[in-house]
Amino acid sequence: FQLSYASAVFFAQLLGILLSRHRWPPGPLEALAVLVPSAAQLLLRGQMPESPAWLVSRSTGESTQAEVILKQLRGIPPEAEGELADAVVRELDHFQARALAPEVEGDGQGPMDGSG
C-alpha cells in the first residue's frame, strides 16, 4: 500500500511539474488530467469492494460480508475451510479488536504515527 501511495504522489507531482505553465485558468490538458481519473473512480466505485476492516468496525452484522470480501482479496475460495479460513477469521478478529480498542497516540500501529 505504501509503495503504491508513494508512487502515486510522485507521479502526481511529476505530472504537475510537466503540465505547469503558471497560468490561469488551466488549459484542456490540465482539466483532463484531473477529470479523467476522477470520472474513472466515480464510474468504477460500484465495482470496488468495501474495506473489510471498515465493515467489521461498523458492526458485527457486517462481519459476514467482510469475510467474503477478505477471502476474495486474499484469493481464497468462498467455501474454503481449514487453515486458510481460520487465517481470515483471525485477521477479521484483529480488525475488530483494533476498532474497539481506544485510540492511543503514537502506539506504532496507525498511519499517522510516523512509523509507516
From TrEMBL:
InterPro entries to which the protein is assigned, alphabetical: MFS_trans_sf
Domain of life: Eukaryota
Protein's recorded name: Major facilitator superfamily (MFS) profile domain-containing protein
Organism this protein belongs to: Haptolina brevifila
